[in-house]
Amino acid sequence: MRPPYCEICDVEVDPSDDVSVAFASSPSEASSPEGAAIVGGDDDRGWFCAEHVGAARALTDRSLADAVTVLRGGTGGDPPASEHADRPHRRVPIAPIGPGALSDAFELCLPEICRLFDFDPPPLPLPQSARRRWSPMDGCQPPWCPYVDEWWREGITEEMRVRISSSASHWNDDDVANCSAGLAIWRHRRAGGEELVCSLGAYGADTGTGRPFVDTLSLSRLGPRHDAALALVVDLVGPGEGP
Question: Would you list the DSSP string of 172-201?
């Protein structure tokens, strides 16, 4: 496993928060007795800070390298920390909400957010999928080991692709380690490939209640349209306490 530094901004993260994200193309991914995925392949896991983990979880259908490239703005490569450690971002407190409920809010706001970026929205509701990823550790195997429940919905048009995702990491059924939710929108490039145009993420650590919730929205790109997209979601779910 990589050292615990965010793949995007190099901020050191606390491994006990379990803010590592597993991505696609894991050669050691196998099937559990219950048919859910077992995550192996440390090369396909990356660490992400609270600012970036929500958006990262929206990209788990890609490889780690592809996800990092997208989150860094499509530039590719691995720039030195000095080139991206101080990238601007915004964090806005919101009323505590479950990651699934925030995903619902993202979808309710999606038509207006798409129009902000000059896209026609995809047909709603978006098709939904889910999976459970097991993380065997300390000799424990499924179903007696930590796991991550992931849900995502995706829509594609001729112009763009949108993915809304949420997740909850569990030490066990009664102990939630953390949770996240994210919205990502890409523009199809005429020459092929995609360009990330909007990314909203939210992250919540252990609440001590056994129930996951997030209370902060993170915006990794600044500008009037991005601020307006953020405001749409905050207006819907309600503002939180904090600066």
Answer: ETTEEEEEEEEEEEEEEPTTSSEEEEEEEE
What was the pLDDT predicted at 35? Answer: 38
In the chain, the amino acid numbered 145 is C
Nearest to 132, CA basis, from 153, 149, 152: 149
Q: Tokens 């995502």: give the residue.
A: 152
Give the H/E segment covering residue 57.
Answer: helix 53-57
> 84, 76 in Cβ contact below 8 A?
no
What one-character-per-residue DSSP string does 71-111 give? HTTS--S---HHHHTT---EEEEEEEE-HHHHHHHHHHHHH
pLDDT digits (tens, 9 = 90+) for 13-50: 776 665 788 887 644 343 333 434 334 345 678 888 87
